[in-house]
């Protein structure tokens, strides 16, 4: 499809053109489109309204002929936006906010027949080029489903710490303010959201629970569907079947938010510090664009970064649901472990610790700083017990191995930081081998320690940092855990003794 723009009465339009037609301006030479006044007598396409309201999409994302879209533009129901704007030779992608020259690439474009540039940063969500138009709905809003009484199917009881946080979440959403819920691993943060979500839905607000991790979305979707049986819960991720559906309650990976535009009254972001949201500016822009101008953002994290902690009003849940303190890491100096490993040696201290835990049939994670170390270490450890296995990000049998570990068929997994989040196994004990390496950041170490003691039946367990010189991250992680335990105790959130 080819399209060109032309100007009538100083307004600029785009329309489809045949391949041999040459008049019209290329989109890249247009400053910005103005919105046409709305023609109330125009019979707009209700299905198109549903697909487009609150979103900003590429033309090719809409399964509607360009002629029909353009008719809606002329009648003031749809607005075109430039995909990329150029200001004094500086380019800016209007979808992801990218303005870094290094992230724009040139290519011979079949559509505009010019040497066109496109944004590499958001290319995974469909190409935005100099000649791309984004479209948004500016006509009347969808009526939406009739809001009955929102049923909530949850009979659990909140802990004291959860209750305090739950009240703050309700307040933040209703007053459309921002909030950070800093909840230790095992505090039970999902339950803290339920009351706020229910009240928002009852008031016909549009609410989104997003996470940088697709695993989190897959885990939360059935839970929320179960808790809110008479609400349609939409779950969006790459390849989801729910795309194009409308509901007031959306679960989505943060990547999917890029398609929304001024839509949500509240966005809750779970595991806000997890890869890749924590350092990807693009997704921060996506969150900003997806919510209405006045809206609430609620961030959830066990290990928030400094910038978030400083800038966001915060409620902490410093204690676990089961009221036992967080296991505190111990430090164990093992000398130059790299040198030893090169000679196929592991330190006696690690050996003894492992032997003791294996003899007691305790499940064990040994975290290592790299795949290279993992491969060497697991070869040596297999002599101790042939069933010991390793996992890393690209490991094709990762899921199967974790499952076998849960079933007790694998007594010990040697792993890269890939298992620092998500996996919980009762009575787990954890070692970090080479914990001074830079891959083990403060937050990674807090998450790793957070795997231990999660279940009510086994609230304690070992967390040992085997190191060749304490790192700042190790010291900070330990201090943070101790501070949370102290605060939990002071607030009466821990059992006595
Ligand atoms: Zn972009
Ligand atoms: Zn082009």
Can you put this structure into words, describing what you see?
The chain folds into three domains: 3-137, no CATH class; 160-317, Rossmann fold; 330-490, 3-Layer(aba) Sandwich (Rossmann fold), CATH 3.40.50.300. The chain has a seven-stranded parallel beta sheet. It has a six-stranded parallel beta sheet with strand order 17-22-21-18-20-19, with helices on both faces. The mean pLDDT is 89. α3 packs parallel to α4. It contains 13 helices and 22 strands. The chain has helices spanning 46-52, 66-74, 160-175, 189-202, 214-227, 281-290, 306-311, 337-342, 348-359, 371-381, 398-406, 442-449, 472-490; strands spanning 3-8, 11-16, 56-58, 78-82, 84-87, 90-93, 104-108, 115-119, 133-137, 179-183, 207-211, 233-236, 249-253, 264-269, 291-301, 314-317, 330-333, 364-367, 389-391, 412-415, 429-433, 463-467. The protein binds zinc ion (2 copies). Residues 109, 111-112, 114, 116, 129-131 line the site of one zinc ion.
Per DSSP, the total helix count is 13
Which class of secondary structure composition applies to the elements?
A: alpha/beta
Shape: globular
End-to-end C-alpha gap: 72 Å
Per CATH, the architecture of the largest domain is: 3-Layer(aba) Sandwich
- Main CATH class of the largest domain: Alpha Beta
Structure ligands: zinc ion
Query: What is the CATH homology-level superfamily of the largest domain?
Result: P-loop containing nucleotide triphosphate hydrolases
Helix percent band: 25-40%
Could you name the ranges where pLDDT drops below 50 across 5 or more consecutive residues?
none
Mean pLDDT comes to 89
Gyration radius (Cα, Å) is: 27 Å
Strand content: 15-25%
GO biological process, one term: DNA replication initiation
Organism: Lottiidibacillus patelloidae
GO molecular function: 3'-5' DNA helicase activity; ATP binding; DNA binding
Pfam families: DEAD (PF00270), Helicase_C (PF00271)
């Amino acid at each position: 499809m080819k399209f060109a723009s032309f100007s009538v009465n100083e307004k600029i339009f785009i329309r489809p053109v045949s391949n041999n037609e040459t008049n019209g301006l290329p989109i890249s030479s247009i400053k910005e489109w103005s919105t046409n006044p709305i023609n109330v007598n125009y019979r707009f396409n209700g299905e198109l309204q549903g697909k487009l309201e609150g979103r900003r999409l590429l033309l090719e994302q809409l399964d509607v002929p360009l002629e029909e879209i353009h008719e809606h533009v002329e009648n003031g129901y749809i607005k075109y936006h430039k995909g990329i704007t150029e200001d004094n030779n500086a380019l800016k992608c209007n979808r992801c906010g990218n303005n870094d020259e290094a992230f724009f690439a040139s290519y011979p474009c079949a559509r505009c027949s010019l040497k066109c540039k496109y944004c590499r940063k958001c290319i995974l969500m469909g190409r935005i080029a100099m000649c791309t138009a984004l479209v948004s709905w500016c006509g009347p809003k969808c009526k939406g489903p009739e809001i009955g009484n929102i049923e909530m199917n949850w009979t659990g009881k909140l802990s004291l710490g959860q209750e305090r946080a739950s009240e703050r979440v309700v307040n933040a959403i209703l007053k459309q303010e921002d909030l950070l819920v800093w909840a230790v691993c095992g505090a039970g943060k999902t339950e803290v959201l339920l009351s706020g979500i229910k009240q928002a839905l009852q008031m016909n607000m549009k609410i989104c629970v997003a996470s940088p991790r697709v695993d989190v979305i897959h885990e939360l979707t059935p839970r929320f569907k179960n808790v809110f049986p008479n609400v349609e819960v939409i779950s969006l991720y790459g390849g989801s079947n729910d795309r194009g559906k409308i509901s007031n309650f959306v679960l989505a990976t943060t990547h999917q938010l890029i398609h929304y535009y001024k839509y949500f009254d509240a966005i809750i972001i779970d595991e806000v510090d997890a890869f890749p949201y924590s350092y990807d500016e693009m997704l921060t822009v996506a969150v900003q664009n997806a919510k209405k101008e006045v809206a609430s953002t609620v961030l959830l994290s066990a290990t928030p970064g400094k910038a978030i902690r400083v800038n966001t009003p915060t409620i902490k849940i410093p204690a676990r649901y089961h009221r036992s303190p967080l296991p505190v890491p111990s430090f164990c100096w093992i000398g130059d472990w790299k040198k030893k490993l090169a000679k196929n040696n592991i330190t006696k201290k690690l050996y003894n610790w492992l032997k003791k835990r294996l003899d007691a049939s305790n499940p064990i994670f040994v975290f290592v700083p790299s795949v290279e170390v993992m491969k060497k270490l697991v070869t040596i450890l297999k002599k101790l017990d042939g069933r010991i296995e390793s996992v890393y990000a690209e490991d094709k049998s990762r899921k199967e191995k974790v499952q076998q570990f849960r079933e007790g068929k694998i007594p010990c997994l040697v792993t890269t930081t890939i298992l620092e989040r998500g996996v919980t196994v009762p009575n787990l004990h954890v070692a970090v081998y080479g914990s001074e390496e830079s891959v083990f950041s403060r937050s990674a170490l807090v998450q790793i320690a957070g795997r231990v003691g999660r279940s009510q039946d086994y609230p304690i367990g070992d967390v040992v940092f085997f190191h060749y010189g304490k790192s700042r991250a190790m010291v900070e992680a330990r201090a943070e855990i101790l501070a949370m335990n102290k605060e939990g105790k002071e607030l009466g959130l821990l059992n006595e003794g």
